[in-house]
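Final report, Chapter 2: Outcomes

The project's central promise was a pipeline that accepts a single protein chain and returns its three-dimensional structure in a standardized token representation, suitable for archiving and comparison. That pipeline is now operational. To close this chapter, we reproduce one record exactly as it appears in the project archive, with the input sequence first and the structure output second.
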Amino acid sequence: MASKNSNNDNQTRRRSSQAHFKQPKKHRGLKWTIFIVLLILITGGAAYGIHAYFAARDAFQATYQKGDTNKLRNVNQVIKDGKPLSILLLGTDTGALGRHDTGRTDTIIVATVNAQKKDRLFDEYPT
């Protein structure tokens, strides 16, 4: 009987003792750290995006506000009177073909229309 009791004791000890494989460690601290870092990055990115949006909106509104300048002449009246009318035409570089100087004026033309003489004149200036 003693051998049966000792056999039972070995089995209960095995069952109650630690398993053959290790339980995975819980990385709660690491998970929270990663979560907090991601939350800070997302919040910071959103704040920067909102700031950039409002700065661009304010810049565009300031750019397109009506100026307080007075016109030196009424263009409609000039056309009705048949006086010569000059228009400045500017062509800007779009950076096509791999050029890096975008936005620079690459063409300057002054177009003059004389309605009385039924004549037009285009003067091109090198840049």
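Archive annotation: The chain has a mean pLDDT of 79.
This record, like all others produced under the grant, will remain available to the consortium after the project formally closes.
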